[in-house]
Design goal:
It contains 28 helices and 17 strands. It has 672 residues and is α/β, with parallel strands linked by helices. A seven-stranded parallel sheet has the order 11-12-10-13-14-9-17. Strands 3-2-6-7-1-8 form a six-stranded parallel sheet, sandwiched between helices. The protein binds a DNA duplex (15 and 10 nucleotides) through helix 5, helix 9, helix 18, helix 24 and helix 25.
Amino acid sequence: MAIQLHTVLNTEQSRAASLIDGPVLIIAGAGSGKTRMICYRMAHMLEMGIHASEILALTFTNKAAAEMAMRVKDLTQRPVSELTASTFHAFGLRILREQGELLGYTHNFTIYDTSDCAALLKEVLHEEQLDPQAHDIPAMLHLFSNIKIGRMAWPSDCSAAIKAVYDGYQEHMKLYNAVDFDDLIMLPLRLFERYPHVLALYQKRYTHIMVDEFQDTSLEQYRLVQQLAAVHRNLCVVGDDDQSIYSWRGANYQNIILFETDFPERIEIKLEQNYRSTGTILQAANTLILHNTQRKEKALWTDGHSGGRITRLYPEQEDDEVQTIIKEIRSVLYARNLSYRSFCILVRTNHLIPAFENGCMLEQIPVQVSGGQSFFERKEVKDVIAYLRILANPDDDMALLRIINTPRRKIGRSTLAALRSIAYQRHCSLYSAIGLVTQQTDLYEHLRKEPLKNLYDLIETYRSALFAAGRKKSRVLRALMEEIGYKEYLAQEYPNNDQAVLFRYGSIQSFIRLFSQWEQDGDNLSYSVYDYLQRLSLHSRDQKEDGDPIDALSIMTIHASKGLEFDCVFLAGVEDHMIPHARTIEENPGALEEERRLFYVAITRAKQDLYISTCTQRKRNREVVPSVPSRFLSEIPEDLFQEPAQDFQLDKDETIAAFNALKRRLAEKESS
DNA sequence: GCATGATTGATTTTT
DNA sequence: TCAATCATGC
């Protein structure tokens, strides 16, 4: 059955969805039904006879990509396994898997995440006789990233030593057969540049390309799609310059201008009608964003209600803020008969999250936290992953360093130093150095070879076992964890804390279970360890694996909330050093506009009610200092705000109403 | 030479 | 609050 676009979409949306040939630029404001439109557009393409394998849809997060594929499937009632809906990084990975050998990468390459890169950088600093503590590692990584991607030239005051560190870093990556996130974009670009036939292959394969969240693409990401679309010119980009919040990661909303130059025949469509929020919330968002100077003109409007005012809360301190917000959520929940999933607490920085998480746990409120420390970032989980990594790619030094003495196997500082210097001289990985040391009986006699040999044999044994295991690799991993006595190691690390030991070993078991589920999944045509590990490094910060929707209150950073919506949104910590973030604007005063966009994104997540909480004082570096409200609040008209109700006591009628609502909910639960 | 316990220092956002 | 580093003991 054909989809009648104009019956399900508004005029602009329908126009955007039906223009499938030629370049199209869609400026889509927050809550303008952008995702819906994109999905209809893809469904329309399929109906027009374009094959799913010819469509490439790129987005920013794995979650968004997965959702897109699912919605298209629902709309068309067809399988979408051949549709490519992925993040830029996952797409880059795919190209590299298919063609990376041309650049000298073997199929078992490892993807280094930020913490791996930081660890490597420290290693290289040591190697170059520099003190890692004297250097700002994240800042250096950021600089290296800019250099690598060609966004920046070396600053004139940059020492030769730093440049040597950069070279060392690059050399090590190649030696380990490892790539970082930048490489996932840059290496495909290099492939296209050096091997025009490879570019032609992909140009032919993907005849229709769409990019969502275009304002968050980097220059390099744009170049990637621009090249792919250069011949057929069927490129549709969708974005909102007001929601560009990733410039620190290279996002450049001026790509919109580049697109306009590269595709002068483009058609431009603006989606400004908002289907999400009340008039009050939109008015707040519109007036706030007007303070930014560089933007495409647009204003959100709604034909719905103006809704209630924005409530401001003034708790005294963090713990007070947690209590105040939880109390408010409870009372709104019962008064309005909502469920927890209608609520969201948004914060600027990750470290505010645990306080809310714990507070909710104590109050028995189910929570869903994204951001913060994820399952895959727990120490013990990283340890198992490191074991798996070293089996997959023994040259992965960062993985080896993680497990070389975990559990303790009497390989200490001086042995390690010796190994490092051998690896350095021989231009080989640490693992090769270990192999060398253990095999040369007459050399390196001052080293304690026994533990090294044991480790080397262990890895070799399990390596061959792993590759002989087919779809039963998780058993090999489980056996390995048992053989090395990881549980005993935990017991030793956390003496007289059995709970911690159980909890942490539980994580290990959960991880092995996840791995096992993945490899047994019949839909997985490729079930190699490399696939799993590479997937893991791109997905690790995502939501939990199983998608059963639980009714829980969401807690997350503003960045993580992009694209989501909630009935009631609580913005916590809206203070002048948090948002705008003091350190951010100190480093780069121009970032003020981005902080404002961030606040704009936060406000526009709310459908019905918006609460803004500002503590009067906050703990900073163990000292309690007074906090003042964010300057952005003064950019929103006063009359859109209301002060909180005098106290949170419900009056008699409200109490009865709440009680009845509760009864109703219980009855509903019973019957379902 | 390695393991262990004490001290210190540090916190923006994420693929 | 937690992790990485340092100094000391075995």
